[in-house]
Amino acid sequence: MLRKFLIPAFLALVASPPVLANPDVWVTTNWHVQMAGHSVTGLTLDWTFDAFASSYLFTTFDADGDGTVTNQEAQAKEDELFAPIAEQDWYLTILGDGAPVSWHLQHVEPVFEPDHFGLKLTVSFDGLQAPFAASLHDDVLFFDFSFAGDDFLTVEGPVDPACRFVAGPGEGALEGHTSTITLRCGDPS
C-alpha cells in the first residue's frame, strides 16, 4: 500500500517544474543614463544591498574588525567577492533594437555608507541608438533587483523630444525580467 503511494509521489516531484526559492540578496538600483539625442553614450548603475547582505559584506571587508573599511581592506576582498558576480556579467543585459549589445564594465566601486553597502558600476558601449533596453535580472533568483523609488532614473545630456524612457516588465528577449528600462524614440505607443 505504501509503495503505491510513494512511487506516484516520487514521480510527481521529479516531473514537476523546478520551484524557485526566495532570493538571497535584495538589491535596489538607481540608473544614470548619459544621452546625446537618440544615442545612449553611457550608463552608471548604483546598487544598494539589503540590510542583512550589507551587514555581512561590511564584516567581510572589515578584516581587522575595527568598524571601518580601509582602502587596503576593500582592495584585498574586491576580487574575491566580485568575481562570482562578474562571471554572471553583473546580471546586466543590454539590447539595442532587440539584439544583444556588447558592453564593457569600465569601473566598479564599492560604496560603504553607514547603513548600507553598495556598488557603483560604470558601463560603456559604442554608439547605442534607440530603441534601447537594459535589465538587471537573475534567472536563478540569487539576486532580486528592483528600482529604488520613483526617481530611480536620471538622464544627463540632450535627449530628443520624440524619445521617452519606459520602466517596467521586459518584453520579447527580456520577457520575465521585472525591472527593465526601455528607451523608445518616435514610438506612438
Describe the structure.
The chain has one domain (20-185). The chain has 189 residues and is of the alpha+beta class. It has helices at residues 2-15, 51-61, 71-87, and strands spanning 25-36, 39-49, 92-96, 99-100, 104-112, 117-124, 128-129, 132-136, 143-147, 153-156, 163-168, 180-185. It contains three helices and twelve strands, in the order H-E-E-H-H-E-E-E-E-E-E-E-E-E-E.
Structural class call reads alpha+beta
Helical residue percent band: 10-25%
Task: Let me know the largest β-sheet.
Answer: 7 strands, mixed
Report Rg. Answer: 20 Å
Terminal CA distance reads: 61 Å
**SSE ordering:** HEEHHEEEEEEEEEE
Low-pLDDT ranges:
1-20
The amount of beta strand, in percent, is 35-45%
